[in-house]
Design brief:
It is a single chain. The chain is mainly α. It has one domain: Arp2/3 complex 21 kDa subunit ARPC3 (Orthogonal Bundle). The chain is 66% helix and 0% strand. The chain has 7 helices and no strands. The longest helix has 27 residues.
Length: 188
Amino acid sequence: MHKDRILINKLKNFENINSNILSIMLILMGSILLAISAKIQVPFWPVPMTMQTFIIFLIGMTYSIRLSFATVVFYLFQGAIGLPVFASGGGIAYLIGPTAGYLYGMLVASIIISYFANLGFSKTYFKTALSLFVGSIVIFSFGILYLGYIIGYQKAIAAGLLPFLPSEIFKIALAVVLIPTLHKFINK
């Protein structure tokens, strides 16, 4: 595990902050970004998109594995206790409802993406794209499997995957441009 892999630790302004306090701040910041990204809908074809998976990509690529896990678990916990952090509100019903699989997929994807980043996959455009593609597959696999159990797998693919592919490709491309460039900028 590379201690210097967490991009935030490379910023000079954060060098003198206690690591526990910094971790708590990053968890709070990440969960706030996830909540905001769930609420904002960007016009896109064929369906509007939220930037939630983009934030998962950023968290996975810039946080450690444990910090990624803790951030997404904290976000899910906030939703479970009723805070309106999910796209349409909050409450335990979201964690067992039709979109629950996507939420759990985001948790697993953040860990996998962070693992890849820990291996250096966040430093090159190709490897970043590969790890984010794998992360997207994980998110949609969890989502489709869970949703398919409820409404049938053909309907789940038609409603819960195909309309979202163009926006997911866009978010992957945006993250691929941003993350390795950020690495190069910070490492100067």
